Amino acid sequence: MFDAIRGKRVLVTGASSGIGACTAELFARHGSRVGIQYHTGKEAAAHLRDTLSEKGCEVILLRADLLRASSREGLVPLFIEKAGGIDVLVNNAGGIIGPSHFLDLDARSWDDTLKLNLTAPYVLSREAFRYMKNHGGGRIINISSIAAWYGGSETGIHYGAAKSGLEAVTKTLARAGAPHRILVNAIQPGVIDTPAHGKIGRSSLEGRARSIPLGRPGRPLDVARLCLFLASEGGDYITGQTLRVTGGE
After folding, report:
1. Each residue's pLDDT tens digit, 44-67
2. 100-129 pLDDT per residue, tens
3. Counting runs of H as helices and runs of E as strands, what totals does the chain give?
4. Whose CB has fewer CB within 10 Å in the chain, the N or C terminal residue?
5. Domain ranges for the chain
6. Spatial distance between the Cα atoms of 46 and 173, rounded to a whole number of angstroms
């Protein structure tokens, strides 16, 4: 089922750590030519590239600040130039910028969180769609969040709103892409054990894990494997869906 992954040109955003890094590694180990986009995690991204290159994988390192319009608009064309095309786009980059109670949330935190989690995936998807439409199709996979399902916390209302919007964009692009064999889906991870939790002040997931039916946080690999499946022959008849990886929540 995964033989078709070999040789695919795959761009993964936010791929210096966490879900993105695991997804990039999984595709690379299955023979894909992988683009690793990063912003500030240059050292981690370079280490991942070197590790995979030593194993014979083909990896392209791409720095882009997805809060900047020029970086957003230029990333996919740059990857196409370096890789010779694009077959799979994984919009993974995201996060909460300026977490605070909604009564105190400043305009910049709201705007930047939407830029990173909604505007950037839309722009990247648009540019990938433009290429895929004229080159036999492709796959676009948007990494959403369980926050889109339950509405987000009082300190992350802007993040939940952005991810809800991303799921709406996913459905629209899926309908538009179907005649061109462009399949577009979203993945809604639950609590995944990644460095992102530390950035918002969460030092332990132990208490949160007790509310998860499977009794543990998810691993980046749990999400990465679904990305690989959706890009494989196994995902040939799946589009316009939001698939949950939440441990039963």
Report:
1. 999 999 999 999 999 999 999 999
2. 999 999 999 999 999 999 999 999 999 999
3. 10, 7
4. N
5. 3-245
6. 32
Distance CA 34, CA 24 (A): 6
Please name every residue paired with 36 in a beta bridge, in sequence order, or none if there are none.
Answer: 12, 61
Backbone angles phi, psi at 241, to 5 degrees: -110, 155
Residue partners of 124: CB distance under 8 A and separation at least 6: 11, 13, 72, 75, 76, 89, 91
pLDDT exceeds 80 at position 197: no
**Amino acid identity of 222?**
D
- Report pLDDT for 189: 97
- Is residue 159 part of the annotated active site? The answer reads yes
What lies within 8 Å, CB to CB, of 31 at 6+ separation is: 5, 6, 7, 8
User: Stretch 204-220: mean pLDDT, rounded?
Assistant: 83
In terms of Cα–Cα distance, which of 48, 64, 59, 84 is closest to 14?
A: 64
- Residue 194: closest CA among 214, 215, 221: 221
Which listed residue (38, 122, 131, 159) is catalytic? 159
How far is residue 191's CA from residue 248's CA, in Å, rounded to a whole number?
11
3-245 CATH pick, 3.30.428.10, 3.40.50.720, 3.10.350.10, 3.40.1280.10: 3.40.50.720
DSSP state of 36: E
Q: Select from 144, 135, 229 the least CA-distant residue to 182.
A: 135
